[in-house]
Amino acid sequence: MRARLLALVLLLLLAGCSSGGTRDDGRITLRFQSLAWQEESVEANRRLVKEWNAGHPDIRVEYVQGSWDSVHDQLLTAFEGGEAPDIIHDASDDLADFAYGGYLADLADLLPARLMSDIPRRSWETTTFGDGIYGVPFLQEPRVLIANATWLRESGVRIPTPERPWSWDEFRRITERLSGRGTYGVAWPLKEPVSATLNLSLSAGGQLFHRGPDGKVTVRFEAADQVVPRTIHDQANTDRSASPTTLGSGGSDTLPGFFGGRYAMVPLGFSYRQQIVQQAPKGFDWQVLPAPAGAGGPTQGVSPQTLSIAEDCPHKKEAARFLDFLLRPPNMVRLALGDWMLPTGTEALKDPALHRAKDGWATGTALAGHLRPAPAQSVRGYPEWKDKVATPAFQEYYSGAIGIGELRKRLEKDGNLVLARYQR
Predict the structure, then answer these.
(1) Residue 6 pLDDT exceeds 60
(2) Among 26, 45, 58, 99, which one is least packed by beta carbons within 10 Å?
């Protein structure tokens, strides 16, 4: 009797630790952890989950609200504890260690052909590690310039377009021309400087991470990689055309000064337009401009938002069916509009709502074809390299505390020591 009771207790404990399961009535329950945070985005996700549940009574999806704050550590703890959600919302540059660690399911044979063909190969490259696909890239955003339209119009500078963007040299000259008497041509919010710098550097032909014939990655900070950092450094320290106080700020921190006429432009992710619409003073005239371009044209690196399935999920096929539903073209458009981002799907990108001039949608959509995988996508150890080496090095360089030579030394020498530990 005692043995039977002990077995029952163990069974219940195991059931309680699983990320999803089957109820006594045979109904499957899947836990979907979403990182949506804007009100419109959360509402879009919740409505889609509700619609799924209404049409699939035997496969219930439970919406779990997550947070982008420390998501890597939170997921790692959940994976190691056997308590990870079945369906995981994350970003592609956070997946490499989880994929190689065996925590994520290979989706190659789970996803329908419709979804595989709708999303371009370049987007799938952001979630492909080795021979497997470990996430569905579904939302992306270019980095753009949010500009004070009145200020630019009165200055008489050439207004760039996606077809004819400013060069990095032209951008530097224009920000210097727009500066003076306590105002600045640009405010760079670089509290998190690494992804912005690396992704924009693709436009100048930068690569930074180089994979050898043996598959190992090394860091080389070459001339093309230095174009964007030098521009930012010189704007802040030589031309005085970039506000030095915003270098340690987040994007939202720059908006009061932007609305107050202190900065002519702010480089931000495309989704920041939602905050601007909500917070801009009445009558404030702003516009979306493409980021500057170099030898590589308007190319940018992106780390799309992704949806993955945990390797421990006991109902992977059902989870894949939910992903197929969530990412049908009309639903992908709803998610994109809710997050003020761009869908990766080619059919969704055709939706007229994403081609409106209002709020800069058309400018962002015109850049979609130039988005490429972020340089660090498949680099194991990237989170540690970014946090321990690259972030402090870039912060010191942009503040003027160190020169370009010391920056190169840290990124290459110290950075390669970190990456080497993940490639043995």
Answers:
(1) no
(2) 26
Which residue has 């912005």 as its token pair?
196
Q: Hey, what are 384's tokens?
A: 């540690």
Estimate to the nearest angstrom the gap between the alpha carbon of 316 and the chain centroid.
25
State the Cα–Cα distance between residues 210 and 228, nearest whole angstrom. Answer: 19
Distance from C-alpha of 385 to C-alpha of 249, rounded to nearest angstrom: 21
pLDDT of 21 over the 70 cut = no
Question: How high is the mean pLDDT of the chain?
Answer: 92
For 332, half-sphere exposure in the C-beta direction (CA atoms, 13 angstrom radius) is 27
* Sign of the four-CA dihedral 183, 189, 191, 194: negative
What pLDDT band is residue 97 in, cutting at 50, 70 and 90? confident
**Number of C-beta neighbours around residue 74 at 10 A:** 15
141 and 309 in contact (C-beta within 8 Å)? no
Strands 300-302 and 286-290 turn out to be: unpaired
- Mean pLDDT to the nearest integer, 22-28: 69
Share of the chain above pLDDT 70, in %: 94
Residue 306, helix vs strand vs coil: strand
Strand partners, 286: 148
Q: Which residues contact 15 (CB under 8 A, 6 or more apart)?
A: 21
Give residue 358's pLDDT band: very low, low, confident or very high (50, 70, 90): very high
Number of H helices, E strands in the chain: 20, 17
Measured distance CA(354)–CA(341) in Å, rounded: 9
- The strand pair at 128-129 and 300-302 is best described as unpaired
Could you report the per-residue pLDDT of 107-158, keeping only the tens digit for each?
999 999 999 999 999 999 999 998 999 999 999 999 999 999 999 999 999 9
**Residue 368: how many other CB atoms lie within 10 Å:** 20
CA-based nearest residue to 184, from 291, 264, 248: 264
Helix-helix angle 223-237:168-177, to 10 degrees? 0
For residue 136, what are its two tokens? 């569905």
Identity (one letter) of the amino acid at 189?
P
User: How remote is the C-alpha of 341 from its chain's centroid?
Assistant: 10
CB within 8 Å of 153: residues ≥ 6 apart: none
CA-closest candidate to residue 211, choices 8, 45, 419, 395: 419
Strands (E), 80-219: 87-91, 128-129, 132-133, 136-140, 143-148, 184-186, 209-211, 217-219
Reading the block at residue 97, the tokens are: 């260690």
The CA-to-CA distance between both ends of the chain, in Å, stands at 52
pTM: 0.89
